[in-house]
Amino acid sequence: MAPHTWVAAIAPVLLGVALAFGLGGFSAEPTTSQVIIVTHLMLITSIALQSAVNTFNDYSDFVSGADTAENVVDETDSSIIYNRLDPKAVLRFALILLAIAFITGMILVMMSSWKLLILGLLGAAAVMLYSFGPKPIAYLPLGELVSGLVMGGIITVGTYLALTKQFDPWIFAYALPVIIGVGIIMQINNTCDIEKDIEAGRKTLPILLGKELSVRMIVWSSFLSLVIIALIGGVHFRAGLIAFALFAYPLIKNLAFLARDPYSIESRSTVMKVGAKQVALSIALLIAVVLLSILYSRMGNTYVI
Fold it and tell me: For residue 28, what is the DSSP state?
């Protein structure tokens, strides 16, 4: 299930909740219990989907021969190999995770809107196509984009829709930092695995770019997400921009690490943790900008447009 990647599942849900309140998307003010129930159901759905992707990917890489005892040095990279799991049991577990996401997703659909079902079906299709089919997405230079749009975009928009019962395509714009962040986590992973992926016949984005250019893209994409957060704050949540002062040091520190790491199989575990931390901090910054602006507005000022 790779819990260290769950930031890609949790962050968009929390952002969707913050935007629902920050943008005043409610046609009627929800009760506290409604918000808690919807938020928890979205978290379960999102984490189950993310875990299903991770599990399907482990299974697919093992049966295809991409992951072997010789080329996997990180114990978190292939549970099947390091824990000697039955591949068929792993596949069944992945299907159970997908079923959990379907059940909680359908409950959310009944509580909100049929439009949420469309988003859910798109997400489920991406989960299956990522690891399976004649040309799995994981084997193409589309993994970063698709994972970013599904986990960062669809989950954020879906959370906003589940809470407000309003479908607002502009939420995708507010979700850009999360979309970029999820893509960054994927790109870090693929950059560390360039040699292994070439042997497996993959054509990922880092393979096409080369390691040096891929690392530059990771660093500049991380910086771009911060610029977008500043723009979002400047346009809609100006009072919350003070949050940058709280997050500046760790964000700069992590960026410096991402710029100098060798992105090797041996350093994969460490750089993945730093990358996930950078993405988590970036989304926490965006959420803080929104929440501080809400707080300031409720104190009698009008900085929220």
Answer: S
